Each structure stands twice: as structure tokens, then as C-alpha cells.
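This part of the workshop introduces the protein records we will be handling. A record pairs a protein's sequence with a compact description of its fold. As an example, a complete record with its sequence and its C-alpha cells follows.

_____
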Amino acid sequence: MQTATPVQRRVSRPRADALRNRERIVTAAREMFVEFGPDVPFDEIARRAGVGNATVYRNFPDREALVREVVLSILDRMSEVGERALAETEDAFEALSRFVHTSADERVSALCPMVSSTFDEHHPDLEAARERIEQLIERLMERARVAGQLRPDVGVGDLMIVVSQLSRPPAGTGCLSLDRFVHRHLQLFLDGLRAPAHSELPGTATTLEDLRQPCVQS
């Protein structure tokens, strides 16, 4: 009696054009979310991406899935920039500066208001990406601190708050007109991070745990 040879099933992979369409949709959504806020119609996103409405819904069945993918794509790019800065830049403070300026260009902070209201911020993919970026910032700052270039009284939370505030234009028409000020003001902030410190900061260094505390209404 002969034993039947198991049939090897081919694992289907997305076609190249399907992947390109998905990337176009994510790019268009990111641009429009930053410019106009979270309620941009899918029809408008499809038009900017140069695809049909059905293609958008085939990739992203609802707004939650699309927003999450946009945020994840931005966090992934930020992580890649940070890793390259660590590997390619010998000057520790220059590596930190490079990461900060590039992060501002990604505009992830413009999506923050909709992140907490549009989808589950504890989604495992989002938590993994967020943990990766937080650990990366800690490495960048610790490297600069050990080199004696970063003042010792600042924490990861301080950096994240300021970058978030300086790179978050109000959603709406004309918000991108503020872009020309972002890197100027970020550089002023970075100069203030350099050691030796020329002033004493009030309070204590802000940690990631501080940022995770719920807001208290007065």
C-alpha cells in the first residue's frame, strides 16, 4: 500500500501592484489626516491615492484600521531613522538631533488626538511599535548623556512632550504654513538640552511613566 505524497500548498503573496496601492493609500491618508483632521471621507483619500473606492475598502474595512496603519507606518519610519542615526553618526548629540528633526517631519503628533478616540490604543501592534520607539529614544539620550553632551536633568518624557508640541499644527486649512518655524524652534530646544546646563529646570525630569498617567481635571 502506497502512502500518498502530501500536497505542498503554495502560500499566496500580495501582488506587487496590490502592495503599491496599499502604500499609496497609507501615504494619502497620512497627508490628509494631518491637513484636515480625522474625518476625511474615504472617497477623498482614494482620489488622492489614485485608486478606486473599492481598493481602499478592500485594504482597510474601516477608519480604525486605516488610522492604525498610518500611525504604525510613521512609527516604523521613525525607528528606522533612529537606528540609522545610531549606526552612522559618531557624534552622540548629532544623532539625537537628527532623530528629533526627522520625527518632526513625520507629523505623528498631528495624529495624536485621533489615536485615542478612533481606535484601541492598546492594540498589540501599536504597543510593540510604541515600545520600540521609546527604547530607541532612551538609547539615543543615554548615549548623549554618557558622552557628556546632554544635560542630566532631562528625561525621555521631556523630549517627547516638546517634539510633540512643536510638530503638531492645528488640523485645518493652512496648518502646514507653520512648517517653516518647526525646525527653527526645535533647534532652539535642542540647544537647551546641551551640557553643560546654563539654568536650573523646575521640577524633575519627565519619564515615560509620567506621560502614561491619566490627566486630572481641576
Observations:
- The domain at 63-198 is CATH 1.10.357.10 (Tetracycline Repressor; domain 2).
